[in-house]
Amino acid sequence: MRVGIFGGTFDPPHVGHLVLAMEAQSQLKLERFLWVLAGDPPHKTKDQITALEYRLELLQATIAADRSFELSRVEIDRPGPHYAADTMVLLNEQMPDDELVYLIGGDSLHDLPTWYKPQLLIEACGSLAVMRRVGDRVAWKKLEQTLPGLRRKVQFIETPIIEISSTEIRQRIAQGRPFRYFLLPEVYQIIKARQLYKGEENQNRILRHR
């Protein structure tokens, strides 16, 4: 079985995430699709992210209507920090007979040599699904010098240009600007009810990292 693995802080999850997931499923013929909610992402240690309980509620609301989407607790149920390489090794142990397809953005492909144990990550993946934008070029020679075997693992997903980011949504909310249609209605209602991302009112909902 081909299983898509889509990880992130999802702070908050938005319609752009859903479009990318839909395209990955369709183009790569994925039979299962796991959303891996980051518990303690090491690359966010200098930032502030919303507490896990709220991000979990938002993600569950985002994927609830699609039976092909599943929440993975592989990072939620173990202490951090959580690295993609370690997560993929654990998922392989849990699903030894499946081909795991790890989704990353085009920028992440370029930055992959700087990740934690990138060679281990590559070996743990059946393939790396890269969400590529039109005109994006890859310096394969340079990447292969650092990470031999990378190119044969990469599959590209052609995705529409969706200029939506969780960062922009958080900024819009903090500034009192409209944000409703960036999100599913259920997610919008949770954010409104919990008063998430609204300046000082949000301080007790933020997890401060080391």
CATH class: Alpha Beta
* N-to-C CA distance: 39 Å
Overall average pLDDT: 89
What form results from the Cα inertia axes? globular
Order of helices and strands: EHEEHEHEHHEHHEHHE
Strand order of the largest sheet: 4-2-1-5-6-7
Contiguous uncertain segments of 5+ residues: none
Task: Examine the coordinates and then state which fold CATH places here, giving the name of the CATH topology.
Answer: Rossmann fold
CATH architecture: 3-Layer(aba) Sandwich
Question: Count of DSSP helices?
Answer: 9
Helix content: 25-40%
How many beta-strand elements? 8
Structural class: alpha/beta
| Residue share in β-strands | 15-25%
| CATH superfamily annotation | HUPs
Rg calculated over all Cα atoms? 17 Å
How many domains, in number, for the residues? 1
Descriptive notes:
α2 runs antiparallel to α9. The longest helix has 14 residues, at 15-28. The protein has helices at 15-28, 52-63, 84-94, 106-111, 118-124, 140-146, 150-153, 166-174, 185-194; strands at 2-8, 32-37, 48-50, 69-72, 99-105, 127-132, 154-158, 206-208. The strands form 2 sheets. Strands 4-2-1-5-6-7 form a 6-stranded parallel beta sheet, with helices on both faces. The chain has a two-stranded antiparallel ribbon with strand order 3-8. The N and C termini lie far apart (39 Å). Helix content is 38%, strand content 20%. With 210 residues, the chain is of the alpha/beta class. The chain contains 9 helices and 8 strands. It is globular. The protein has a single domain (2-208), classed as Rossmann fold, CATH 3.40.50. α1 links the parallel β1 (2-8) and β2 (32-37).
